[in-house]
Each structure stands twice: as structure tokens, then as C-alpha cells.
């Protein structure tokens, strides 16, 4: 339908006063406000009915946006509508919308249909929408849905948002398939802000690409009836994914505005400002971030995860310069980091789950940055919790990270813990040999023990053999009897000092000599095994 050349509406439209006012406001680029001024009555989610004086047909809105009248001289057309009830289905599928669009505090009787539509900027603020269908939607500028209530889900599959996507304080219910927001393959040029939202169903972001940051600060994702509350494999965020707490009291959200760059939460370990209510990120249901790429960081500061026994916080094969695992400890479910690659691991001892709740086979990190007290024994328990069955990689990874931080002593302790854990899997003979290496030289990681054992055996042997005088084997050329030198010759398996073969003993002292020789060989063998292990590690 084409409007007359003078900008007047077609007579067949039979515009109501509310629609006539919207028509004129569109040509002027001004806001058409149909609200009453009473907050309770103007609440789009309230029970009070909105009469004919506040009703605008979706057909009229579509006509204005797709084939509207020209602007008044010196003005730019824009559709700015506040406090209206939009009747019928607003269907702009496949259309190209040039004017700026902003609807505030409106009620939609039926779903909004925008598949493959193209906008400059689209803002739906504080509206009640039965469902938003916008697959392959394109915007040159922003797409805003803050403080909206959507009852049967949102579909943004393969949408393209030129700048920012803002859905702060959105409340969205599940669709027929149990999904709240389906945005698989969406591309956002700059920030995707989803702060303080309430999602009742699965939020799906498979293969999404975010140009700057994705913020879920203070949001609550709930899908207790499904497997996951957030399903975002192969998600790419050029900077940081925030699943952290948000300050509510005293924040810009308290006045109903949408800040352009989200909330600045207090730094780690600091106390929020007086009067600020901190709302944590909460997730009831599993999270899947497998194969994700995060350019700056993945942040879980003060997050809460409520998982069932079969659900996971899955981060398989993710890559990020920094993982901030500073959440509350999940009581059930599993945290999976298998194959993940991280440069800095920022964590707290209280954040990690216990045995059976952590899997990190192939998890690599370069530097450990603990927040608060995280001593080495607890760090070793952290590794043990992730390996119900013995695996050497987690211990070697911990040792490498400790050595990178300049903690060589702790690095050796980690490798010693690996050998002790390995010993538990060996047969009886291997366990005996392992205990011997552990007691003597700590598997080669404490070489100073060899000198202590050698000195102890030397002193005991010298004292024992000094209480008797042996008979020389040959009276000609027999060396001077020296019990200390004789004991040392017994203990050293390769070096010959000419003492052990020059004397004859009675039975008791002869067996004592054999014991010293065996102990010397055992000590030398364990030292050699430990040294070879150290050389292989280096």
C-alpha cells in the first residue's frame, strides 16, 4: 500500500485518533506518548486493561515502517511510540526498514515477526511481547530489548547486529521446545550485554561471534527441566565473557536506564560501595562452553552454579589468556576443563569441587594466580580430585606452572606426589621398590637424602666394625686396619679402596659386611634412578 504523495494516510486505513497522532509523530520524528502517567496503570505487564485510546494496529505500524509518508520539511522520519497496545501481528519479515524505531512500554497482543528484516536501529524497551521471531535479522546499528518480558521465547538465529546488542533486565520464558533464547550463529559487532536478565529455559548461543565483550553480570539462567541452561559451544568473544556479580543498588539500572557499557563491579576481594546490593550470576542447570575462544578472559567471579548430578559446567578445549575461576563451589555436577588452554589461571581453593566433581585431562595453564590462601597441599588435593585414576599429566602441568613462577621446590614436590600416586597402581614388587626410592632419595627429587643415608650407614658400620679386629688375608702387604675406611669401601659399589678384600671375619661380621654391600648397591641404584628421572624431566 502506498500513501498519497502529500503524506496523508490512505482513506481506507480509517485511522483512530491514537493512530493519527502516531502518523504525524512519525513524519516529525517525535515521540508519540499514549501513557497515562500512572506507573501502575502504564505497566505493560500489569492487569489493568488499556482501552481504545491506547490501541494502535500492527498494520499501521508496518505501513509506516515499510512504506511510510515522507518527513516534514527539515525533519527525519522515526517511529517512536510509548505506552501503546499494538493489536494484531506485527509482521515485517523480509522488509527493509529505514527509519529509526523505538517502542517503549508497549503491549503486543501477538508475536513480533521480523525474520530477514533489515533495520538501521531497533529498540524495544520495557515492552511485553508474546514471542519475538527474528531469525537472520540485520541491523546497521543497535538492537535493544532491555526490560522486556517475552513469554514464549526469542529467536535470533544467524542474526547480524552491527554494533551493540542490549537485553539487560530482560525476562524471557521458554518456547515449546524448552528454549528461552535461540541465537545460534548470531554476530554482534561490538558488545552483547545481557546483564540482570532472567532466562527460564535454554539460552542457546552455539557458534555466536561477539566483537567485544559478552556480559551476563547478575543474570539468572534457569532450566531445571532440561540438560543445560546455557548452551554455547564454539562461542567466540573477542574480549571477555563475564558471568559475574552485578551491583544493583545505586547502579544506573536502578533508574531504569541502560548503561552503554554495563556495570563496573568491584575488583577482586574488595567490598562493594555502601548501599550497593550485589546480585551474583546464578545458573540452575548445566553450562556448555566447549571449544570457545575468549580474547581476554573468562570470568566467573562470585558466580553460583546449581547443577544436578548429571549436569556439567563444561569448558572442554576452550582457549583464553585468563580463566578467573572465583565462583562458589558447585555442590553437585562436574566442572570439566579437559583439553582447555589457559595462560593465567586465577582461582580460589574454595571454588573447586571435591573428588569426582572435576575433570581436567589435557588442561594446560602457564601461570597460577591464587586469590586468597591456596597452599601446595591443597593444590595437590585439587589435582587428585580431578584424577580418580592415576594420570601423570595434571601433576606435570602443575609442576611446570610452579617452575614458571619460580617455585622450584614446590615444583619438585608436585612431581614427587606424582610418583607416590603412581606407586599405588604398581604390583607388590613395584610398590616395595617405590617405597625404597621414596625413603632414600624421594624418587630423586631430594638428592640430599642420599648423603644423609650414606653418612648414617658409614657411621653405624664404622662403629660396629671398630669393636673387633679382623685377621688379614695375607700378612704380607696387608693395609693398616681402619674401620671407617673399611665401611666406606663396602658401601661404595664401584670404587675399590683395597679394604674389603684384605680382611677375614668371623660369621657375624662377615654377614654384616654383606649387608653393607647390599645397602650400598641399593642406595646407589636409587640415586641413579632418581638422577635419570631428573635428566629426562629436564
TrEMBL record:
Transmembrane residue ranges: 511-535
Keywords: Membrane, Transmembrane, Transmembrane helix
Region (Disordered): 29-52
Protein name per the record: Oxidoreductase
Amino acid at each position: 500500500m502506498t500513501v498519497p504523495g502529500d503524506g496523508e494516510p490512505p482513506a481506507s486505513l480509517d485511522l483512530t485518533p491514537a493512530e493519527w497522532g502516531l502518523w504525524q509523530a512519525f513524519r516529525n520524528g517525535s515521540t508519540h506518548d499514549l501513557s497515562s502517567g500512572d506507573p501502575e496503570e502504564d505497566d505493560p505487564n500489569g492487569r489493568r486493561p488499556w482501552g481504545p485510546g491506547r490501541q494502535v494496529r500492527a498494520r499501521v505500524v508496518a505501513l509506516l515502517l515499510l512504506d511510510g509518508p515522507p518527513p516534514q520539511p527539515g525533519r527525519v522520519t522515526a517511529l517512536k511510540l510509548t505506552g501503546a497496545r499494538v493489536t494484531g501481528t506485527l509482521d515485517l519479515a523480509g522488509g527493509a526498514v529505514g527509519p529509526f524505531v523505538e517502542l517503549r512500554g508497549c503491549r503486543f497482543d501477538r508475536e513480533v515477526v521480523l525474520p530477514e528484516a533489515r533495520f538501521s536501529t531497533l529498540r524495544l524497551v520495557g515492552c511485553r511481547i508474546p514471542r519475538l521471531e527474528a531469525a537472520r535479522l540485520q541491523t546497521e546499528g543497535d538492537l535493544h530489548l532491555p526490560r522486556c518480558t517475552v513469554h514464549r521465547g526469542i529467536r535470533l538465529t544467524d542474526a547480524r547486529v552491527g554494533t551493540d546488542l542490549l537485553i539487560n533486565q530482560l525476562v524471557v520464558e521458554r518456547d515449546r521446545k524448552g528454549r528461552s533464547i535461540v541465537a545460534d550463529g548470531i554476530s554482534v559487532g561490538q558488545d552483547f550485554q545481557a546483564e540482570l536478565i532472567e532466562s527460564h529455559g535454554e539460552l542457546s548461543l552455539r557458534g555466536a561471534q561477539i566483537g567485544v565483550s559478552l556480559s551476563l553480570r547478575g543474570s539468572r539462567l534457569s532450566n531445571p527441566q532440561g540438560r543445560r541452561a546455557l548452551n554455547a559451544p564454539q562461542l567466540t568473544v573477542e574480549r571477555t565473557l563475564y558471568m559475574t556479580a552485578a551491583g544493583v543498588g545505586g547502579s544506573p539500572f536502578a533508574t531504569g536506564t541502560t548503561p552503554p557499557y554495563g556495570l563496573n563491579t568491584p575488583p577482586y576481594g574488595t567490598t562493594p560501595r555502601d548501599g550497593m546490593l550485589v546480585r551474583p550470576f546464578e545458573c540452575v542447570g548445566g553450562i556448555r562452553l566447549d571449544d570457545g575462544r575468549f580474547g581476554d578472559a573468562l570470568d566467573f567471579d562470585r558466580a553460583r552454579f546449581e547443577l544436578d548430578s548429571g549436569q556439567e559446567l563444561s569448558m572442554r578445549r576452550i582457549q583464553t589468556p585468563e580463566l578467573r575461576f572465583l565462583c562458589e563451589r558447585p555442590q553437585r555436577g562436574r566442572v570439566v576443563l579437559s583439553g582447555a588452554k589457559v595462560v593465567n589461571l586465577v582461582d580460589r581453593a574454595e571454588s573447586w569441587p571435591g573428588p569426582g566433581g572435576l575433570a581436567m585431562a589435557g588442561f594446560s595453564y602457564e601461570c597460577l594466580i591464587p586469590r586468597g590462601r591456596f597452599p601446595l597441599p591443597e593444590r595437590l588435593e585439587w589435582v587428585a580430585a580431578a584424577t580418580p585414576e592415576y594420570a601423570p599429566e595434571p601433576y606435570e602441568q602443575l609442576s611446570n606452572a610452579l617452575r614458571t613462577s619460580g617455585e622450584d621446590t614446590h615444583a619438585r614436590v608436585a612431581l614427587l606426589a606424582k610418583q607416590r600416586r603412581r606407586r599405588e597402581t604398581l604390583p607388590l614388587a613395584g610398590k616395595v621398590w617405590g617405597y625404597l626410592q621414596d625413603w632414600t632419595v624421594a624418587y630423586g627429587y631430594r638428592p640430599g637424602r642420599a648423603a644423609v643415608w650414606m653418612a648414617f650407614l658409614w657411621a653405624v658400620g664404622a662403629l660396629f666394625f671398630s669393636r673387633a679386629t679382623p685377621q688379614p688375608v695375607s700378612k704380607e702387604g696387608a693395609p693398616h686396619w681402619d674401620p671407617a675406611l673399611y665401611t666406606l669401601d663396602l658401601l661404595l659399589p664401584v670404587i675399590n679402596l683395597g679394604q674389603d678384600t684384605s680382611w677375614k671375619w668371623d660369621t657375624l661380621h662377615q654377614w654384616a659386611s654383606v649387608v653393607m654391600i647390599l645397602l650400598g648397591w641399593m642406595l646407589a641404584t636409587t640415586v641413579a634412578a632418581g638422577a635419570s628421572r631428573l635428566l629426562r624431566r629436564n
